[in-house]
């Protein structure tokens, strides 16, 4: 690999044509009426994306949003770009074909927790390991919104829903742990309600060459209202949110009195900063090829949200699948010359009849 | 010693042995020699069901049948004239097909007590008289090979393994085959192992010399080249021809081919073949499953590639939902189904035609899809081009229905002139196109515009939700849905005016019985019909390239005969469609043995229908 392992991975958008025209959020809105429930977290994400995209300065026609099925997956209809609202769980597969064949596009996938982790789990993990040039926005509301409120693969154990009146039985996925385990090169988490943070993560994701997975905690105020309340409640949020910054010691709390250090078991533990030597406080290293720290960070989540990391867990460089495929094609053309159909058809043992 | 040379007009040879004996390779080489000699030919490989069945057992038997002639032939032949059996298992599995008086060449070295017992022979058939009806040539092929290779610096095992080349040399002598091709082939194949190369060449020559110098074979046979139209020829399998057809479709449309595929027998070779053609800009993507494979292909089509996915019946089942999405979004896509015996995993290495109704109807909602079927191995090339043409012109998924027999069978192919191949115009929507709407249809074809990402000013969203006529916006309007369902159907039905009418082969013009088929039954039906005509009967044959929509003249053709016979390797799937659509009381002939029909059985069936007139 020629590139250095560094955070600002140039190249993700290097082949996407730029525009000189100044864009605003309005340019990315369509004339379609937005049909989410009033108060749904999806509105905030939509507005954040629309007001972020002008920053990239890309030609609108070279941006594509591809989604599966779910409330979240309605997203492309509201984006004035090319868009494909596909079928349940399959957006990463469809986007893989598009991104692999069109390096001049910025391809975004919008998916839900059910879409990405239940029916589409297989495609998600394979997109991550291949490192296709895709930006996957996973709207995690920990519920099936569109089908009116069944528990999802990210719902907490014991969740009472229409399909689990006595409580759900299965252990949920932690999407961050899953993505890191699936060899993801860019794995991050953010919140629908924190536009500044959300956009900072989108900024880094957009520039990342390869698959970027961005989990967005999203409130479904109809079927799972308040699912992420501790992270949003001004009274407690600073105490329970760990804001990850690459290269910075991991400390948190309104008075920054808490920090993380390595635990004896190999994971991470929360300590009072005052009680330990500063050298014991772990410094966040999202660029470390070894995913152990990123994984340990992802395991800090708990049902009660006592200490939840947000930000970029992992951000490493690996050649993307599409660029490797392009390189093979270029190599084949270079070594054997461009394809000659007549020669191909007449290859092998032939004979002539006069 | 000069030997008597006897002229034959055609021969059917079957090579049979353990899967480790190299029978496919031997068959392939004999086929190439035969092809370059100028005979017409047709082949039928028969692979063992299990890859690593224990050596010497019945499930491990692999065979390769080749029919070659001095005239044009249509099938790999019903029964062999010559059976080469490399071990007791191969003998047991194949002897039932060898007609009385047939030639049987056996490798006696393998007829040990243990090997005989493995396949349930109580006594040695070479000694107990049970083979007295055949002309048996009992030869110690292994030991003769080892002896011939005594001077080579190779292991005993490697020497023994060259026995197939000894056998090939002997048969090449017996049938006067040119040997240059095989020698060149061995030089290429073992270029990195010179000693093995020399040994194999020596084994091949020893086999040839054995035929020439010993008295075991008193006659040598000759099958003159067939009179074929002038041109450059090669031998080609169905899967190879299909892959070439897809490359050609890319070249002739100017679109990059994107293949999304998940390995499955008997379709995998198309993936393998296309993976070699990167210099044509062909992208091959081995996906995590069939759903991802077709999804990626559809995504590539959305981006302006010729999206293709290749699979077999079980894979089509998984792809159904995405085919529906392609119908709804009206994007070009070619879905190749190389059918195999089902249901479920069925018999992966055996052929069948039982996916017709699956590809016609196996989707939710009204989701019509054009279906195209090749009739012979080389015809897979033209059928692939035709599938791509329809997909691109009509912005629709198209199913190309091949099968295991066509896929692995081979025949000589007159290589077409590239300029004679159809040109396909993708007709992309252009930037800033006036009054663009994603579902504004071409009035003639009813196809919608193909506006690919990157086209300025035409940004739009598509998806699986019902959309408004013209604008493509989401719509739940009752009347609009009715309109859209009908428009999608009308678009596919309209293709009937853009395809060739079905041709009827009825040389005397006096036939009252029509035989109609599709796909791989072409050769068997045509051969059966030929035989019946030679016996003075009148019979017509039609073979369908397009199964959806049917050619416009099909109803008229069916109604102009007293009786219509439909042979299919399924329980009557085309018959069901013909009855439903044309109200014609067709007579089905259906057998599902994992093998093509023999022309003899079809001739019998058709003759019974004619004679009952
Ligand atoms: C093949 C298939 N199965 C089931 C459904 C029904 N379905 C639609 S969306 C959905 C779950 C959506 O949940 P999620 O992905 O979390 O999205 P949300 O609505 O919460 O944004 C289900 C089960 C479907 N559309 N297709
Ligand atoms: S159901 Fe929930 S996720 Fe869906 S639109 Fe309503 S609030 Fe949003
Ligand atoms: Mg959800």
Which labels suit this protein?
heterodimer, A: 354 residues, alpha/beta, Rossmann fold, eight-stranded mixed beta sheet, three-stranded antiparallel beta sheet, 11 helices, disordered N terminus, B: 613 residues, Pyruvate-ferredoxin Oxidoreductase, domain 3, 4 domains, 20 helices, 23 strands, binds thiamine diphosphate, binds iron/sulfur cluster, binds magnesium ion
How would you explain this protein's 3D organization?
The complex is a heterodimer of chains A (354) and B (613). Chain A is of the alpha/beta class and 354 residues long. Chain A has 11 helices and 12 strands. Chain A has a single domain (2-248, 305-337), classed as Rossmann fold (3-Layer(aba) Sandwich). Chain A is 27% helix and 18% strand. In chain A, strand 5, helix 6 (195-207) and strand 6 form a beta-alpha-beta unit. Chain A is globular, with a radius of gyration of 22 Å. In chain B, helix 19 (573-582) links the parallel strand 22 and strand 23. In chain B, helix 1 runs parallel beside helix 6, helix 4 (141-148) crosses helix 6 (163-174) and helix 11 (290-302) runs parallel beside helix 12. Chain B is globular and about 85 Å long. The relative contact order of chain B is 0.09. Strand 12 (350-353) of chain A pairs antiparallel with strand 9 (231-237) of chain B, so a sheet runs across the interface. Thiamine diphosphate binds next to helix 3 of chain A.
Topology overview:
The complex is a heterodimer of chains A (354) and B (613).
Chain A: H1 41-52, E1 63-67, E2 82-85, H2 91-101, E3 106-112, H3 113-119, H4 121-130, E4 135-140, H5 175-181, E5 186-191, H6 195-207, E6 212-217, H7 229-232, H8 237-240, E7 241-244, E8 251-252, E9 258-262, E10 268-272, H9 292-298, E11 308-315, H10 321-336, H11 341-345, E12 350-353
Parallel strand pairs in A: 1-2, 1-3, 3-4, 4-6, 5-6, 7-11
Antiparallel strand pairs in A: 5-11, 8-9, 9-10
Helix pairs in contact in A: 1-6, 3-4
Chain B: E1 4-8, E2 10-18, H1 23-37, E3 40-46, E4 61-69, E5 82-85, H2 88-94, E6 103-107, H3 113-118, E7 135-139, H4 141-148, H5 156-161, H6 163-174, H7 180-189, H8 194-213, E8 219-223, E9 231-237, H9 238-253, E10 257-261, H10 268-275, E11 283-286, H11 290-302, E12 306-311, H12 313-329, E13 333-339, H13 356-361, E14 371-372, H14 379-394, E15 397-403, H15 404-408, E16 410-414, E17 461-463, H16 478-494, E18 504-505, E19 513-518, H17 522-534, E20 540-544, E21 546-548, H18 554-559, E22 563-568, H19 573-582, E23 587-590, H20 599-611
Parallel strand pairs in B: 1-8, 2-5, 5-6, 6-7, 10-11, 10-12, 12-13, 13-15, 14-15, 19-20, 19-22, 22-23
Antiparallel strand pairs in B: 2-4, 3-4, 9-16, 14-21, 18-20
Helix pairs in contact in B: 1-6, 1-7, 4-6, 6-8, 7-8, 9-10, 9-14, 11-12, 17-20
Iron/sulfur cluster binds next to loops of chain A.
């Amino acid at each position: 690999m020629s590139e250095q392992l560094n955070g600002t991975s140039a190249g993700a958008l290097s082949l996407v044509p730029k525009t000189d025209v100044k864009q605003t959020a309005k340019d990315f809105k369509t004339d379609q009426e937005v049909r989410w429930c009033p108060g749904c977290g999806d509105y905030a994400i939509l507005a954040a994306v629309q007001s972020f995209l002008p920053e990239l300065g890309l030609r609108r026609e070279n941006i594509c949003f591809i989604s599966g099925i779910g409330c979240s997956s309605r997203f492309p209809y509201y984006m004035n770009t090319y868009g494909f609202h596909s079928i349940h769980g399959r957006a990463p597969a469809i986007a893989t074909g598009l991104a692999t064949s069109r390096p001049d596009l910025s391809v975004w996938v919008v998916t839900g927790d059910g879409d990405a982790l239940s029916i589409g789990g297989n495609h998600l993990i394979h997109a991550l390991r291949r490192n296709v040039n895709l930006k996957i926005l996973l709207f995690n509301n920990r519920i099936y919104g569109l089908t009116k409120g069944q528990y999802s693969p990210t719902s907490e154990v014991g969740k009472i829903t229409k399909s689990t009146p006595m409580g759900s039985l299965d252990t949920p996925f932690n999407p961050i742990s899953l993505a890191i385990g699936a060899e993801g090169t860019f794995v991050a988490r953010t919140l629908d309600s924190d536009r500044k943070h959300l956009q900072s993560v989108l900024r880094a994701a957009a520039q990342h060459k390869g698959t970027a997975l961005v989990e967005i905690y999203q409130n479904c105020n109809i079927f799972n209202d308040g699912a992420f309340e501790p992270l949003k409640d001004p009274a407690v949020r600073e105490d329970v949110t760990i804001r990850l910054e690459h290269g910075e010691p991991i400390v948190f709390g309104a008075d920054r009195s808490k920090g993380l250090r390595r635990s004896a078991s190999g994971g991470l533990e929360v300590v009072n900063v005052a009680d330990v030597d500063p050298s014991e406080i772990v410094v966040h290293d999202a660029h470390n090829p070894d995913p152990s720290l990123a994984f340990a960070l992802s395991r800090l989540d708990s049902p009660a949200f006592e200490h939840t990391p947000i930000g970029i867990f992992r951000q490493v460089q690996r050649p993307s699948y599409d660029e490797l495929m392009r390189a093979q094609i270029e190599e084949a053309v270079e070594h054997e010359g461009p394809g000659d159909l007549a020669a191909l058809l007449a290859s092998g043992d032939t004979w002539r009849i006069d | 010693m000069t030997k008597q040379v006897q002229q034959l007009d055609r021969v059917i040879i079957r090579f049979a042995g353990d899967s480790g004996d190299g029978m496919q390779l031997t068959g392939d080489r004999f086929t190439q020699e035969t092809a370059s000699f100028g005979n017409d030919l047709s082949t039928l490989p028969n692979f063992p069901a299990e890859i690593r069945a224990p050596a010497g057992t019945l499930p491990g038997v692999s065979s390769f049948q080749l029919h070659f002639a001095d005239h044009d032939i249509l099938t790999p032949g019903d029964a062999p004239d010559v059976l080469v059996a490399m071990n007791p298992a191969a003998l047991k599995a194949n002897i039932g097909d060898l007609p009385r008086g047939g030639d049987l060449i056996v490798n006696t070295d393998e007829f040990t007590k243990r090997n005989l017992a493995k396949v349930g022979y109580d006594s040695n058939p070479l000694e107990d008289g049970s083979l007295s009806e055949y002309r048996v040539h009992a030869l110690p092929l292994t030991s003769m090979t080892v002896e011939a290779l005594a001077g080579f610096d190779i292991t005993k095992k490697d020497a023994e393994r060259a026995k197939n080349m000894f056998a090939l040399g002997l048969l090449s002598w017996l049938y006067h085959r040119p040997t240059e091709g095989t020698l060149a082939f061995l030089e290429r194949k073992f270029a990195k192992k010179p000693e093995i190369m020399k040994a194999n060449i020596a084994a091949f020559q020893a086999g040839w010399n054995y035929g020439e110098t010993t008295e075991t074979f008193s006659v040598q046979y000759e099958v003159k080249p067939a009179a074929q139209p002038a041109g450059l020829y090669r031998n080609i399998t169905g899967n190879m021809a299909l892959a070439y057809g897809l490359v050609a479709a890319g070249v002739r449309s100017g679109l990059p081919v994107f293949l999304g595929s998940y390995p499955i027998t008997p379709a995998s070779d198309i993936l393998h073949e296309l993976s070699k053609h990167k210099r044509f800009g062909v992208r091959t993507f081995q996906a995590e499953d069939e759903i991802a494979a077709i999804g990626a292909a559809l995504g590539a089509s959305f981006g302006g590639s010729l999206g293709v996915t290749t699979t077999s019946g079980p894979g089509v089942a998984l792809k159904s939902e995405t085919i529906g999405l392609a119908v709804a979004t009206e994007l070009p896509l070619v879905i190749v189904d190389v059918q195999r015996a089902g249901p479920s995993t069925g018999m992966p290495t055996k052929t069948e035609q039982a996916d017709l109704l699956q590809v016609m109807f196996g989707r939710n909602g009204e989701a019509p899809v054009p279906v195209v079927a090749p009739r012979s191995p080389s015809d897979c090339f033209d059928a692939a081009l035709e599938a791509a043409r329809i997909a691109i012109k009509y912005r629709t998924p198209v199913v190309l229905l091949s099968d295991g027999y066509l896929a692995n069978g081979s025949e000589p192919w007159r290589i077409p002139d590239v300029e004679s191949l159809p040109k396909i115009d993708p007709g992309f929507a252009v930037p800033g196109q006036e009054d663009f709407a994603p579902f504004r249809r071409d009035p003639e074809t009813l196809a919608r515009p193909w506006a690919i990402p990157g086209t300025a000013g035409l940004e739009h969203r598509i998806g699986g939700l019902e959309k408004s006529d013209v604008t493509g916006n989401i719509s739940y309007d009752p009347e609009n849905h009715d309109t859209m369902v009908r428009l999608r159907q009308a678009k596919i039905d309209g293709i009937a005016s853009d395809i060739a009418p079905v041709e009827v082969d009825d040389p005397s013009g006096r036939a009252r019985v029509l035989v109609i088929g599709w796909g791989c039954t072409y050769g068997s039906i045509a051969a059966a019909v030929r035989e019946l005509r030679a016996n003075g009967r009148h019979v017509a044959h039609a073979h369908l390239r397009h199964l959806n929509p049917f050619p416009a003249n099909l109803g008229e053709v069916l109604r102009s005969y007293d009786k219509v016979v439909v042979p299919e390797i399924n329980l009557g799937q085309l018959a069901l469609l013909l009855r439903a659509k044309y109200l014609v009381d067709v007579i089905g002939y259906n057998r599902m043995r994992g093998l093509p029909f023999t022309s003899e059985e079809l001739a019998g069936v058709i003759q019974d229908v004619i004679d009952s007139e």
